[in-house]
């Protein structure tokens, strides 16, 4: 019974993310969804394992966009974005080591971001979770409006 409850809970979380996603059915959504659960691997850039910037670089490559390899380099790209103006596809950055930019993820809407975490692998987290909120540095917009419409807007809205 406990195993069945855990499965239902996991399914509810997954469906809750899908339904609540700001970009359901977009190319960005489907690309990220396929990677959820892949293990963290330091220096990893493939579906065998990702580090944080390897994950963001991989996702953007699938969308036809090239990113620099490291989180620090990615933080220099695009335009700064205020947290209240975030949109799907923006990069969000964190200081997890005490030495400036050290972690990056992709904003996916509803105050959530996709990233490769050392403890959970590729996952979705909330920007308001205590750990992430304390370490948030800022965000960068690396997609122009046309690219955003093509890859990050709900397929039905774009039609």
TrEMBL record:
Location of the NlpC/P60 domain: 21-143
InterPro entries noted in UniProt: NLP_P60_dom (IPR000064), Papain-like_cys_pep_sf (IPR038765), Peptidase_C40 (IPR051202)
Record-linked PROSITE patterns: NLPC_P60
Claim: Cell membrane is one of the keywords in the record: no
GO BP, sorted A to Z: proteolysis
Molecular function in Gene Ontology: cysteine-type peptidase activity
SUPFAM superfamilies referenced in this protein's UniProt entry, alphabetically: Cysteine proteinases
Top-level taxon in the UniProt lineage: Bacteria
UniProt keyword list: Hydrolase, Protease, Signal, Thiol protease
Annotated signal sequence range: 1-24
The keyword Signal belongs to this UniProt entry's keyword annotation: yes
Protein family according to the UniProt entry: Belongs to the peptidase C40 family.
Name assigned to this protein: C40 family peptidase
């Amino acid at each position: 019974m406990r195993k069945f409850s855990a499965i239902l809970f996991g399914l509810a979380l997954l469906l809750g993310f899908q339904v609540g996603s700001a970009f359901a059915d977009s190319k960005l959504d489907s690309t990220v969804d396929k990677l959820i659960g892949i293990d963290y691997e330091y220096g990893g850039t493939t579906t065998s394992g990702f580090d944080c910037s390897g994950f963001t670089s991989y996702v953007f490559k699938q969308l036809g966009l090239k990113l620099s390899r490291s989180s620090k380099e990615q933080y220099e790209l695009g335009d700064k974005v205020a947290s209240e103006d975030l949109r799907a596809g923006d990069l969000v950055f964190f200081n997890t080591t005490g030495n400036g930019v050290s972690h990056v993820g992709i904003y996916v809407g509803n105050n959530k971001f996709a990233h490769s975490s050392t403890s959970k692998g590729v996952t979705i987290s909330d920007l308001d979770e205590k750990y992430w909120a304390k370490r948030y540095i800022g965000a960068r917009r690396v997609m122009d409006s046309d690219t955003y419409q093509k890859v990050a807007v709900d397929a039905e809205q774009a039609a």
